[in-house]
Design goal:
With about 350 residues, this protein is of the alpha/beta class. It has 2 domains: about 100 residues, no CATH class; about 200 residues, von Willebrand factor, type A domain (Rossmann fold). It is about 40% helix and about 20% strand. It contains 12 helices and 12 strands. The strands form 4 sheets. The chain has a 6-stranded mixed sheet, with helices on both faces. A two-stranded antiparallel ribbon has the order 1-2. The chain has a two-stranded antiparallel sheet with strand order 3-12. β5 and β6 form a beta hairpin. α2 packs antiparallel against α4 and α4 packs antiparallel against α12. The longest helix has 19 residues.
Length: about 350
């Protein structure tokens, strides 16, 4: 019964290779016939002298023997390449369907040094921690100041995104600014092309200058089914705001302008998209949550997306033909046959 079941399942994984079989057999027959005519040397050399020159010594060894072995070797090789299969194997796999877009603020205030060594560096550290929780998720990276820039589209190559983080600093941006709304829209565009069950945007910022537009963009993300997490960078006391030309920016009275972190608008932004706001001290907890499937980890969808599954695939049995192929090759190594 097991044998009949196996024969019923027998098939070729790459059947197109079988098309080469009749061509190779025809080539073997043509070579055998051509060899039988002594390669037309009989027209140039006397028959008795030709027999003396033959490697087999003219002893009458059949010239058909090597071509039979050659045809058999070619046939075995073609069948092996075609991938005969009659058994199935199972392999563990991780079924993940998450897509994230990390949005990093590179406005001039991110150069403030109220966090050591500066806010931008601490933001990069936070993003690096989050990337450690990506696992099978696809991740994209967007940086913004006056305009958003896609640093990396959605990819599972987390190592590449990590390599792109170190150069990110406010001084590489072509124009200063702090407009978050276009960056959220860019994140929505990237996630809109992702066939994923769980989509998330994570913003690392110290504030934004376009609250009305940013709240509207956050609401659009919520309608799109995208969760929004906001990570605040900075301290309430703040630090002097660096000036693009050097030194510190000053107000009309000549006093240094301070870049302070105001968590209230950041919390409101996260709430507008149904997400949450956290500080840098809570990044580790967010990473752990993301690694387990996010805040929906207790739901059935999250459990299904994060569980290991078994995938079935047909086993390639072509390797069983290798000993026969080696035997044919050994037979063809006989001196004088080829």
């Amino acid at each position: 019964m097991a044998l009949s079941a196996g024969l019923g399942d027998f098939h070729f994984l790459r059947p197109a290779w079988l098309l080469a079989l009749p061509l190779l057999l025809a080539l073997a027959v043509w070579l055998a016939r051509r060899r039988a005519r002594d390669g037309d040397w009989s027209q140039l050399i006397d028959a008795e002298l030709l027999n003396a020159l033959r490697l087999d010594g003219g002893g009458g060894v059949s010239s058909r023997a090597p071509w039979i072995w050659l045809a058999l070797a070619w046939s075995v090789a073609v069948v092996a390449l075609a991938g005969p299969s009659w058994q199935q194997d199972t392999a563990p796999a991780f079924r993940g369907s998450a897509a994230w877009v990390l949005v990093m603020d590179l406005s001039p205030s991110m150069a403030a040094t109220d966090l050591s060594p500066d806010r931008a560096t601490r933001a990069r550290y936070a993003l690096d921690d989050l990337l450690g929780a990506a696992h099978d998720a696809r991740v994209g990276l967007v940086a913004f100041s006056a305009e958003p820039y896609t640093v990396a589209p959605l990819t599972r190559d987390v190592a590449t995104i990590r390599a792109l983080l170190p150069p990110l600093a406010p001084d590489i941006m072509p124009s200063p600014g702090d407009r978050l709304a276009p960056a959220l829209q860019r994140a929505g565009e990237l996630l809109g092309k992702a066939a994923a069950d769980r989509r998330r945007t994570i913003v690392v910022t110290d504030g934004f200058s376009d609250p009305a537009a940013a709240f509207a963009a956050a609401g659009a993300l919520r309608e799109q089914g995208v969760e929004l997490s906001v990570i605040g960078v900075g301290t309430p006391n703040g630090a002097p705001l660096p000036a693009p030309e050097g030194g510190f920016a000053r107000d009309a009275q000549g006093r240094p302008q301070l870049a302070r972190l105001d968590p209230a608008p950041l919390r409101s932004l996260a709430s507008a998209a149904g997400g949450r706001y956290i500080g840098l001290s809570d990044v580790a907890a967010l990473s752990a949550s993301l690694a387990q499937g996010g805040p929906r980890a207790g739901s059935a969808d999250a459990d299904a997306a994060g569980d290991a599954v078994e995938l079935e695939h047909w086993r390639d049995g072509g390797y069983w033909l290798l000993p026969m192929l080696l035997l044919c090759a050994a037979a063809l190594a006989r001196r004088g046959w080829l």
